[in-house]
Write a structure and sequence with these properties.
Blueprint: H1 5-19, E1 53-56, E2 62-65, H2 84-87, E3 90-94, E4 103-105, H3 110-114, E5 124-128, H4 138-150, E6 155-160, H5 169-192, E7 201-206, H6 208-217, E8 225-229, E9 252-256, E10 280-284, H7 299-310, H8 312-320, H9 322-336, E11 342-345, H10 349-353, E12 365-367, H11 376-379, E13 406-410, E14 420-428, E15 437-448, E16 453-458, E17 465-468, E18 472-479, E19 487-496, E20 515-524, E21 537-541, E22 548-550, E23 554-559
Parallel strand pairs: 5-6, 5-7, 7-8, 8-9, 9-10, 10-13
Antiparallel strand pairs: 1-2, 3-4, 3-6, 11-12, 11-13, 14-18, 14-20, 15-16, 15-17, 15-19, 19-23, 20-21, 20-22
Keywords: Disulfide bond, Secreted, Signal
Protein name: Lipase domain-containing protein
Pfam families: Lipase
């Protein structure tokens, strides 16, 4: 069968756009009549799927392909995995007894498990890599070390499916289903033959590894937890739940989204899903552009050093997949880091940065990363067979420690990654001499009674901002340091900005460029606790005079002495 040159170009272009994995991915998409067991032809058209065919892989189980696994836009291919011996899935055990020399576990070989350091009463963490990745990647070793460091009772099993994660991307996607069978078979053996408690199983998957974890867990009742680290978007987003990671796959599913840029929003497409797919979905920095990942900020300066230090593989990650791998770095840092990744449940990232979702009461805060906790809505209510019409208890009745299922936002940094959140509420005054509005930049310094301080906090992080006198403004800013104590003084610095392109903004001899402020309130976000109290420390501060008159390039101090 021959394809015209024009048709070939269309196929290549379509698959390149949809997969974002390279122009060669079209070559493995098959058509029903081109199966190797019938006609020896390898002509591939992505929009013609298999239908109702099943293949079995010995003791690990069978896979079928139906129309439900196909979608013209979201998943324009429908192929089977490569043979088991080609993918060659392996499971490598690490414990504090053997932290560097892994022990190979073979599901059907009891001696390999009984002769290893595997202990069924230990929490068991599985690390699952993604596309074009192997267990030799630096991040796998770093995460494994941090997990073992966290507790001498933890055991880590690294899933090696490197021979199946190679290009073409479409084939790697299909291979995840077979590796899911392999992983499921091993876990069942550990449960049935060796006494492992499925609730002690925690599957940690990156990219394709997130969905692979779901395929394994959905076949085993009561798997404790799946952590999805920027689950892969191409061929998964918009598909039914059985095709991708979803909350029904484990008792607790938490997801970190870091590369969820969308082509439909006229953005450079990312590799990760924007669609929520867990009980708790975390979106640091809106789940899109991560600090330090813009080429002009990081790659041009760091690539040469990275090449020398970590090799070409790590350099390519910085250059091509910085946002995508940031989820790995955030999770790894959260395991033993002293700074908690506190996130807020909010309708949108804009609402969060505007300070509209800063309260933790009612289960509206959650910890992102290793120490994330199961939401109340699942822990005490959720049932896989529950009806959509069932009534969920009011969030007001949730214990403070238990977050509510939903989307959570936070701000992280380039280095250090973890940041403390502070909310400023600026109450503007409107004396008769004030202009209706002024435009410029604000910075602040905060001070405590014990001498702690944070300086140069940027209250206009998006650039010059317009302030209308008589209104109030809220802004969330971050700093890696926790000031801890009650704030007793705030310094506010104002710089008026003239824009020659906006004549109304010019302020020469006939206008007033001063900023007039009535009060400042600073809220410091604290880590959620079990205590039934307000979780934030709030301080309202006022100037010595009734109104602070701040001239351009000037500063005024606010004190904890407001009249109550």
């Amino acid at each position: 069968m021959m394809l015209s040159f024009e048709a070939s170009i269309v196929i290549i272009a379509l698959n390149f756009v949809l997969t974002k994995a390279g122009p060669l991915d079209w070559a493995r998409v098959e058509i029903p009549w081109a199966r190797a067991d019938r006609i020896p032809i390898d002509v591939n058209l992505p929009w013609l799927p298999f239908e109702n065919e099943t293949r079995c892989y010995g003791e690990i189980g069978c896979l079928n392909i139906t129309r439900e696994w196909y979608h013209l836009i979201h998943r324009p291919f429908n192929v089977f995995p490569l043979p088991r011996n080609v993918i060659n899935t392996r499971f490598i055990l690490y414990t504090n007894e053997n932290p560097t020399d892994g022990q190979l576990l073979v599901a059907e070989d009891k001696a390999s498990i009984n002769g290893s350091n595997f202990k069924p009463d230990r929490p068991t963490k599985f690390i699952i890599h993604g596309f074009i990745d192997t267990p030799l990647s630096n991040w796998v070793s770093e995460m494994k070390q941090e997990l073992l460091k966290h507790s001498d009772q933890i055991q880590v099993i690294v899933v090696d499916w490197g021979s199946g994660s190679l290009p073409l991307y479409t084939q790697a996607v299909a291979n995840t289903r077979l590796v899911g069978l392999e992983l499921s078979y091993l876990i069942k053996k550990l449960i049935d033959d060796h006494g492992l408690n499925p609730e002690d199983v925690h599957l940690i998957g990156h990219s394709l590894g997130s969905h692979l974890a779901a395929y394994a867990a959905e076949r085993i009742p009561n798997i404790g937890r799946i952590t999805g680290l920027d689950p892969a978007e191409p061929f998964f987003q918009g598909m039914p739940e059985f095709v991708r990671l979803d909350p029904s796959d484990a008792k607790f599913v938490d997801v970190i989204h870091t590369d969820a840029r969308s082509l439909f929003l006229l953005e450079i497409p990312g590799y990760g899903m924007s669609q929520p797919c867990g009980h708790l979905d975390f979106y640091p920095n809106n789940g899109k552009e991560q600090p330090g990942c813009i080429l002009s900020q990081e790659s041009s300066a760091l690539i040469p050093l990275t090449l020398i230090k970590d090799g070409i593989e790590e350099a390519s990650r910085v250059l091509l997949a910085c946002n995508h791998v940031r989820a790995i770095k955030l999770f790894t840092d959260s395991i033993n880091g002293k700074c908690p990744y506190v996130a807020h449940r909010c309708p949108s990232y804009q609402h969060f940065t505007d300070g509209k979702c800063f309260k933790c009461n009612g289960g509206n805060c959650a910890l992102m990363g290793y120490h994330s906790t199961m939401p109340y809505s699942y822990q005490n209510y959720h049932n896989h067979n529950a009806s959509e019409n069932d009534v969920v208890p009011s969030p007001d009745n949730y214990p403070p420690i238990a977050p509510v299922q939903g989307k959570y936002f936070l701000i992280t940094g380039k280095e250090p990654l973890c940041q403390r959140h502070y909310r400023f509420i600026i109450e503007m005054a409107r004396p008769v001499m004030a202009e209706k509005w002024v435009q410029g930049f604000l910075t602040a310094g905060i001070f405590t009674e014990r001498g702690k301080s944070l300086r140069n906090l940027d209250l206009t992080p998006k650039g010059t901002q317009r302030f209308e006198h008589g209104k109030s403004y809220m802004i969330v800013v971050t700093n890696p340091n926790d000031i801890g104590d009650r704030i007793n003084k705030v310094e506010l610095n104002w710089s008026h900005e003239m824009n020659v392109l906006e004549p109304r903004n010019l302020c020469l001899f006939w206008c007033n460029d001063h900023l007039y402020v009535k009060s400042i309130t600073v809220d410091m976000m604290q880590m959620p606790t079990r205590e039934k109290r307000e979780l934030e420390k709030s301080n309202k501060l006022c100037p010595k005079q009734e109104i602070a008159d701040i001239k351009s390039l000037g500063r005024v101090l606010f004190y904890d002495s407001c009249k109550r």
